[in-house]
Specification:
The structure is a single chain. Helix 1 packs across helix 2. This protein has about 100 residues and is of the alpha+beta class. A hairpin with a 5-residue loop joins strand 2 and strand 3. It has a three-stranded antiparallel β-sheet, with no helix packed on it. The chain has two domains: about 30 residues; about 55 residues, no CATH class.
């Protein structure tokens, strides 16, 4: 499940050498387990936040923060007492407005 975001069940079937139905069920069980684990995790202590855009350059398009092909997201990072990153959460947002960020 770490090879790329959202590995297809067909590709998983080939990697594991199982039938498609088994690969599909396995994939969904893994996703469910990962989702449940992440839902219980909370950031604690020193937490820093920042905003950024994720995406590549598009030929002939606008460069920088206003580019149409970039996705805005917010990241919150929990730091140890020594200031080292411990864990983080990235959340895509529709934009960087006060209304969006307050929710």
């Amino acid at each position: 499940m770490q090879s790329k975001p959202d590995m297809a069940a067909l590709e998983l079937m080939r990697h594991l050498g199982v039938c498609y139905r088994t690969a599909w069920r396995t994939k969904h069980k893994i996703i469910k387990g990962m989702t449940e684990r992440e839902a219980r995790r909370q950031l604690d202590g020193i937490v820093t936040m920042d905003d950024a855009y994720l995406g590549g350059a598009r030929n002939g398009g606008k460069a920088g923060r206003g580019s149409k092909n970039k996705v805005p997201f917010v990241i919150a990072l929990e730091l140890s007492d020594a200031g080292h990153p411990k864990q983080g959460v990235m959340t895509p947002v529709p934009g960087f407005t006060l209304k969006v960020l307050a929710t």
